[in-house]
């Protein structure tokens, strides 16, 4: 089986076993406006990170460093799954890398809690509101984890407030969630393969907050069109 390599022309996409594998974070972007994916990663439009994005990266790095300082166990995910089942204890992993060619996703999971009877996949976000894009991204992590490590116990997705550490949303993944995710993933794969066009959001308020609009890089901005008609 061949190793995953970076796509020759599409930023962020990997190729493994002849399959395109895109970042799990794209599922959140797709729910907001999938035209962002086309602009930045396929067309190559350059935009700078927002202050919130820079702050978020620093806070995630800080959480990872704190986790490493406290970590006392070493081993593979499969070993921890087996130990949790036998010893009735839990293990916490941070920034777990997953590459799932069949599912079509790759990324790093903020936190994985392996319990004796279920696995919890945690994504840290600023705030307590679980937006549709946040949930879609979390299900993506759940699917990728299951493909990579195949636990025979339920997988639960959780969004946690990055600053307060409170769980803002949690739910067990079901076959219905999986089917909805397959459709979302297939849409993004279609954009990558150029079998379909990326669709911009139909909500002007999203455009007003989007960095592609605020930096003047989007040719499909509804906010720009609205301003021209004032």
Instruction: Report helical residue fraction.
Output: 40-55%
Extract low-pLDDT stretches. none
Structural class: alpha+beta
Q: Tell the overall outline.
A: globular
Number of β-strand runs: 8
Distance between the termini: 58 Å
Please give the count of helices. Answer: 9
What is the CA-atom radius of gyration, in angstroms?
A: 19 Å
Strand content: 15-25%
- How does the major sheet shape up? 8 strands, mixed
Q: Any idea of the CATH class of the largest domain? A: Alpha Beta
CATH architecture of the largest domain: Alpha-Beta Complex
- Helix and strand pattern: EEEHHHHEEEHEEHHHH
The overall average pLDDT, rounded, is 92
Number of domains as seen in the coordinates: 2
What's the CATH topology name of the largest domain? Lambda Exonuclease, Chain A
Mind explaining what this structure looks like?
With 230 residues, the protein is of the alpha+beta class. The chain has nine helices and eight strands. Helix 1 (26-33) runs antiparallel to helix 5.
């Amino acid at each position: 089986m061949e190793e995953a390599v970076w796509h020759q022309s599409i930023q962020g996409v990997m190729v493994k076993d002849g399959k395109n594998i895109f970042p799990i974070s794209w599922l959140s972007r797709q729910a907001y406006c999938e035209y962002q994916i086309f602009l930045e990663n396929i067309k190559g439009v350059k935009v700078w990170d927002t202050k919130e994005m820079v702050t978020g990266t620093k806070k995630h790095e800080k959480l990872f460093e704190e986790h490493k300082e406290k970590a006392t166990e070493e081993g593979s995910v499969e070993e921890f799954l087996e130990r949790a089942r036998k010893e009735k204890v839990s293990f916490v992993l941070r920034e777990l890398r997953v590459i799932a060619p069949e599912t079509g996703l790759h990324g790093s999971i903020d936190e994985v809690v392996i319990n004796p009877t279920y696995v919890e996949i945690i994504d840290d976000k600023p705030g307590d509101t679980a937006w549709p894009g946040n949930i879609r991204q979390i299900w993506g992590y759940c699917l990728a984890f299951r493909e990579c490590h195949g636990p025979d116990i339920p997988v639960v997705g959780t969004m946690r407030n990055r600053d307060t550490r409170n769980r803002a949303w949690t739910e067990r993944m079901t076959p219905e969630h999986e089917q909805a995710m397959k459709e979302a993933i297939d849409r993004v794969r279609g954009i990558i393969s150029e079998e379909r066009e990326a669709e911009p959001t139909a909500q002007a308020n999203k455009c007003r907050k989007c960095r592609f609009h605020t930096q003047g890089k989007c040719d499909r901005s509804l906010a720009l069109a609205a301003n021209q008609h004032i």
